[in-house]
Amino acid sequence: MSSTNPSGSSFAKILLGLDGSSYSQAATEFACQIALKHSAAITGVAVIDLPDIERAIGPAPVGGIHYAEQAEQRLLKQTQEKVQGLLQNFEQVCQSKNINYAVHADTGRPFEEIIEESKYHDFLVLGQKTFFRYNVADEPGDTLDRILTRGLTAVLTVPDQVREIRNVLVAYDDSVQATRTIQMFLLLGIWNQCQITLLNVNEDLNQGNELLDRLRDYFGSYGIEPEKVCLTGKSDAVLLSYINEHNIDLLVMGAYGKTRVVNFFFGSVTKSILEKADIPLFLYH
Questions:
Q1: Cα gap 132→84, rounded to integer Å
Q2: Does the CA dihedral 233-237-241-243 come out positive or negative?
Q3: N or C, where is the chain less crowded by C-beta within 10 Å?
Q4: 245 to each of 19, 232, 234, 248, 279, how far by Cα in Å?
């Protein structure tokens, strides 16, 4: 199923990571809002991290292999039951909203399975913190980080609260990663009707404004008239300050990029923004 509508969007399938956390619940709501507005389908994916279950049991002592195997089977069964419940809840939500959907459950490493499934979807919606260790009370996992560095599709990462997206900030540093992210953002067309601001962080303001002028012309070809802002300073601090001071609802940026113009987005900057900016991020690399 494809969709072409007045906002210019053209996509068919959204992939949604389900781990049962408050972040996953918010991601589900975001995905549903997008699917309803743009007549898209959602695939909810849950992955049982079998290697992690095996690590949780630990090595068996001499003579204890049988009991270790039993413990592993019990934990696996508990995890399977929880995953089944998550998928059923997802199905109920989609049915109640009349959204076309599919479910996908697998075992393995979550980031690998999600990347594999993303081959057949237009973009991924995932919580900014992931908890695919379904039966273990633990710190967030590294699934998102691995997907951002190795994944194939754009990712909308969301905090644990849903918000209406009205004001969008597009961070641009002339890198390949930032450019690809912007191209995907415009092609999807999900937020093209929002108020959009283009931001470049650059010690050479003339150079920064020249970059933004070209970028604004590109947005103009999509019928969008964005504002442009060029600022100096440390990029993550500038971004966070601008987000807070101007009520930004969505940040668009390249993930783990390197720029030939100015040191702007390295992995540490992306991670800093993910940790400190309590808004959704649209990321690509």
A1: 14
A2: positive
A3: N
A4: 32, 16, 16, 8, 13
In the block, which residue shows the tokens 């908890």?
131
Pairing of strands 167-171, 195-201: parallel
Express each pLDDT in 103-156 by its tens digit: 999 888 899 999 999 999 999 999 999 988 776 556 778 899 889 888 889 999
Cα–Cα dist 12/100, whole Å? 10
Beta strand pairing call for 154-158 and 123-127: parallel
- Which residues, including other chains, have CB under 8 Å from residue 119's CB and lie 6 or more apart? 152
Tell me the C-alpha distance between 107 and 178, whole Å. 33
**Domains of the chain in sequence order:** 13-158 (3.40.50.620), 167-284 (3.40.50.620)
pTM of structure: 0.86
pLDDT tens for 145-154 read 889 888 889 9
Helices 65-97 and 22-38: crossing angle in degrees, nearest 10, is 40
